[in-house]
Design goal:
heterodimer, A: 162 residues, alpha/beta, Beta Polymerase, domain 2, two-stranded parallel ribbon, 3 helices, globular, B: Rossmann fold, 2 domains, 9 helices, 40% helix
Chain lengths: 162, 231
């Protein structure tokens, strides 16, 4: 599959996403085209982003999350890339911190399986319909999810200089 | 007591008919151990690039010290170079690898992470603060990562420890672990000179002088005369 040109530029990508999903909006403070969408619309939107010929995001480069404890939310992030067109896009969605459940994207990109296991391992976000949701980096008997900002561990040391 | 032929080529060259030098078995064993430290090919982070790959390559050339034969099985390795961060998940595996190595086994901890946890010391969920929490360490080589000459300095320190180390009467007795920091301002050139001086001191022997110092020098002289006078 050869790459055809440079793909779409930032404005037209965001406009195309908003055309697909009216509730999505541009997300500022990012070095690449980025959109934010409500959690309920996430899976249909990502599926369309992969299937539309003009967009053709056939690769999930990275899936991760950010913890915002003051605002009571996690932000799940999907960094997409199109091998056909050569453009990339960041799709974000907010998940409530007290009930972090996200639909799985394994049906869209099979590589999501391990990336979602990693996010589950480190952030404790659960994936609905995930085929094999286990820890991937930490031991199976690990307590808690260490990339949460409020994670505490008896072995952890505080920096005495602070 | 066995007679160990020491510095054999030099002696055979200098004295017609050859000679023997009497030494202790401990000395010979320790020399052999110190000069054939086979490391385990085991690197956990960026120190492995510097300490195992850069030092092993042609420019630095770890094989000058007889320590280049990286073994991929613990059963054949003498020395474990802990090059990099040890995380909690890795700790039991490090211990297992150490237990699998045959005695005598030596450990060099290189870099801040293997010594103390380094930059991951505070507010970190995964770190083992120093590999000495898991296995005993003989030589610490500070640096982040240590330069190749700093690592060589640590290796020479370990060789010195081994040479003055355990004896047959007291097997398993080791010296205390040492911190082998390269003195400040020391350059690679000076390290090379130090290494050359060390090698020269150990390997270039004036045989006649050495023989004269022995308490049985007269007997040796007589023996040599008797044997070299034969056609």
């Amino acid at each position: 599959m050869g790459r055809e040109g440079q793909g779409m530029d930032s404005e037209s990508l965001i406009a195309a996403v908003i055309g697909l999903e009216a509730e999505a909006q541009a997300r500022g403070a990012s070095d690449r085209p980025a959109v934010r969408t409500p959690l309920g619309t996430l899976e249909p939107l990502l599926r369309q982003l992969r299937d539309r010929d003009a967009l053709a995001f056939d690769m999930l480069l990275d899936h991760t999350a950010v913890d915002w404890p003051e605002e009571g939310r996690f932000e799940v992030m999907y960094r997409l890339f199109s091998l056909r067109h050569g453009h990339d896009l960041l799709v974000c969605a907010d998940v409530p911190r007290d009930h972090p459940v996200v639909p799985t994207m394994c049906g869209i990109w099979p590589s999501a399986e391990f990336q979602e296991r990693e996010v589950y391992d480190l952030f404790g976000i659960e994936y609905d319909q995930h085929p094999d949701l286990r820890r991937v980096f930490l031991e199976d008997d690990w307590q808690g999810h260490p990339l949460r900002k409020d994670y505490q561990d008896p072995d952890m040391l505080e920096d005495p200089r602070k | 007591m066995g007679l160990i032929l020491d510095k054999a080529p030099a002696i055979l060259e200098h004295i017609p008919g050859g000679s023997i030098v009497v030494t202790t078995l401990d000395w010979a064993i320790n020399q052999s151990r110190a000069n054939s430290l086979w490391p385990l090919a085991f690197g956990t982070k960026c120190c492995a690039i510097e300490v195992l790959m850069a030092t092993g390559a042609a420019h630095q050339d770890l094989s000058r010290f007889g320590a280049e034969v990286a073994r991929h099985t613990t059963r054949q390795a003498d020395m474990m170079i802990v090059a990099g961060t040890i995380v909690k998940k890795m700790a039991p595996r490090v211990r297992l690898l150490y237990e699998q190595m045959a005695e005598p086994r030596y450990v060099i901890a290189t870099g801040s992470c293997a010594i103390s946890g380094g930059p991951f010391m505070y507010n970190s969920y995964h770190i083992v603060r120093g590999v000495d929490e898991v296995i005993p360490v003989d030589v610490y080589v500070p640096g982040c990562p240590p330069r190749p000459e700093a690592f060589f300095w640590g290796l020479l320190t370990l060789q010195r420890l081994i040479k003055q180390g355990e004896t047959i009467r007291k097997p398993g007795i080791r010296t205390k672990p040492v911190l082998s920091a390269l003195p400040a301002g020391m350059t690679a050139e000076q390290v090379r000179e130090e290494i050359a001086r060390e090698l020269e001191r150990e390997n270039v022997v004036d045989v006649n002088q050495a023989a004269e110092r022995l308490p049985w020098a007269a007997k040796v002289r007589e023996w040599i005369q008797n044997h070299s006078s034969q056609p």
